[in-house]
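Revision sheet: C-alpha cells.
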Amino acid sequence: MFWSVTNVGNWIFDHSLAINSLSLVSTLPVLQDATFVCSLAWILYRIWQIYQKPVDELVELLGLDIPPVPDVSLGGISPDSVLLYWKPIDNLSTSLKHAIQVNGIK
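Predicted:
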C-alpha cells in the first residue's frame, strides 16, 4: 500500500474517532490533574530540602562570596547624630558599600 498524505490523514481521522468513541479523551483532564499534583509535590519537596540545609552549606554549594562583617562600635549619641567607629576589612581589593539602618530606616 502506498502511503500518501491523504491516506495518512484518513488513518489519523479514523483512529481519532475510535479514541473519542472509547472515551479515552475524557481521562486526559484526570492525567493533567495528577501530573500537576505530582509536580507541585516535587517542587514543595525540593523547597523543603533547600530550607533544611544550613546557610553555610548553601553558600558553599552556590559559590557565593559573602564579605566579612566589619567590627562596628558606637562612639557617641547626640540628639541629632550618632558617632560610629569601625575597623575596615583586611582585603582592600574588594569594593563594598555599607548602609546603616536603625529600626529598618536608612
